[in-house]
Specification:
The structure is a homodimer.
Chain A (H helix, E strand, L loop, with lengths): L15 E2 L11 H9 L13 H11 L6 E4 L2 H11 L4 E6 L1 E2 L1 H8 L3 E6 L1 E2 L4 E2 L1 H5 L6 E6 L11 H13 L3 E5 L24 E6 L12 E4 L3 H10 L7 H9 L4 H23 L4 E3 L6 E6 L6 H10 L2 E2 L6 E2 L5 E5 L3 H22 L1
Parallel strand pairs in A: 1-14, 3-5, 3-8, 8-9, 9-10
Antiparallel strand pairs in A: 2-11, 4-15, 6-7, 10-11, 12-13, 13-16
Helix pairs in contact in A: 1-8, 2-8, 3-4, 3-7, 9-11
Amino acid sequence: MNYHGGNIYDKNKNLVDFSSNINPLGIPESFQKALFCHIDVFTKYPDINYNRLKQSIGNYINTDSSNIIVGNGAVNIIYHLAKCFPVSKAVIAVPTFSEYKRAMETAGIEVVEKEIFDFDKMTFDLSILEKEIERDAVYIVCNPNNPTGSLLEQDKMQNFAQILEQFHSFLLVDEAFMDFVFEPQKYSVLKFLKEHQNVVVVRAATKFFGMPGIRLGYGVTTNKELFNKIEKLAEPWNINAAAELAGSVIFQDRDYIAKTKKWIEEERCHMGQLLKEINGLFIFPTAANFYLVQIENRKIYVELVYKKMIQKGYLIRTPNGFIGLDKQFFRVAIKGRQDNINFCKALKKVMTNLLEDCK
Amino acid sequence: MNYHGGNIYDKNKNLVDFSSNINPLGIPESFQKALFCHIDVFTKYPDINYNRLKQSIGNYINTDSSNIIVGNGAVNIIYHLAKCFPVSKAVIAVPTFSEYKRAMETAGIEVVEKEIFDFDKMTFDLSILEKEIERDAVYIVCNPNNPTGSLLEQDKMQNFAQILEQFHSFLLVDEAFMDFVFEPQKYSVLKFLKEHQNVVVVRAATKFFGMPGIRLGYGVTTNKELFNKIEKLAEPWNINAAAELAGSVIFQDRDYIAKTKKWIEEERCHMGQLLKEINGLFIFPTAANFYLVQIENRKIYVELVYKKMIQKGYLIRTPNGFIGLDKQFFRVAIKGRQDNINFCKALKKVMTNLLEDCK
């Protein structure tokens, strides 16, 4: 099994987990109430067609529910897509999350990693890909990108989709963190899916809603051929009753959504300031709910920072679980104000000591 | 999507569902308590290795946890196995559940259906299969079989496994309903897995515990090559947090297990008597928590009985979702005493009227 964040199971349970990016506001009350009132959802098989769930997601993202695929987490949809794309090659924009590669390889698709992160502009540069487009391929772009936090504009994505279309190639966009973006509708590819049948977007429903354990993801495409292929492949009841129930309430929980938007706007800014005050680190700008951090001194390895931070009670995310990222980088989640302050204090101390040792 | 039982979502919600075989004792209190006390399990990713869950299952079935595969429902494991068996052909003992066929075909394996139900002895006759064994194939047998309710003896299964071994063939046994059998340890293939590495058993953890909505299944094999292949293929976090939590408590809930065993022993016998008193029906003996019923008069189609029973407020299981079963059969669940009595009364009336119309 690959390495991922949030793996607190082989560690001291008292660690504060800055390695996985989960909304610190916790479980929406609307879901807690629904679960306690409807605990008997577990006694029935879920709706094999997930009609109500798809409708609820459709309302939330303002999309016809007939274009929506649901899955046991976003990762599950990516694995299914890998088996359905009529392609022989996948081009992955890196650095990024490692599961795209694993999903494509498991489906027997050749994977090419393309390093397109522009370290001057601090964002993905699609023009690098556009110079040499592969025919009958799927291009995979995470937006905002995990772990860089960078965000691509809608018009750039649409232009790229258009070019790919001419080469019979697909664009798979992972928008797992799009809900955390300020004004996501201005960035999401959802807006132009109707015009581009070669585009598929995948989202994790439960990151923003603080419940990765519930396993609920969704995908959207207007490509009926691809859609039908995936539906045909889907295992029956692949989404559990708790996720089905959550999906019927959380997307309408305006209060939770508003609170989360307020929290991320405030804490993204505040934590960014705190991190920037720490010597020896470069902090990448982010549109998501995490920061990518680079250790400037090449003598200081991330494993060292990782170990020292564990001693202080904090778990950070090392480059394991990502492709295209070297050993100078780590990722930290944005949490509640006091946690962020304490974490940054601890990190400052660790870095001060390590820089001292290097002198 | 295929047809299955329990699909009450496109029907009147007031129907009593005799189409899906779920423990009427409901959700174990141990799980309800655990969920209400640990609702925050949803805020974390599940353990990517599911160590504790595997340990708990291992204790329950008295098997080393290193031989246990866990999945998002038993069906999920069957789909994964289909991709991992080093075979080109699957031989399915029918009549049986349709998902084996769908899983094998989805994985590109040629499927052969072998009708081996002996209508005189009311059980599967493995000797039909043994006459002509396929090399490099997987044989799939559901035991007790869904929907016939018939049960094969351990020594017959072991003998069959031995024969298959000589032909480099595998035996996949679906024991989804084994927990409902009287003295299951005398019938389960678990007993001889150590000696036969060509055998894999799959079980649904949550049928017996009244919670199909939770999606938890497990498989057991001592074949390390096959085991590693499946583990490599597994999507990360494919079991949700509610299922993980359930797995850590329900298998130790002796009170619930004892109550369920008492219920099934009493009601299986009682309902069998009631059904046998209805004219025009043949009732197959069962070792599970359902009865297969055959309409003796060929002029009366199951759809007619289905419609009339819906009018009376009951859902029965038509042969949709099974292979090798013709239109004269239906399956009914065993529920609580009063529900069973009311159901049998309604069925008796329906059959009396239909037989009257045939005269």
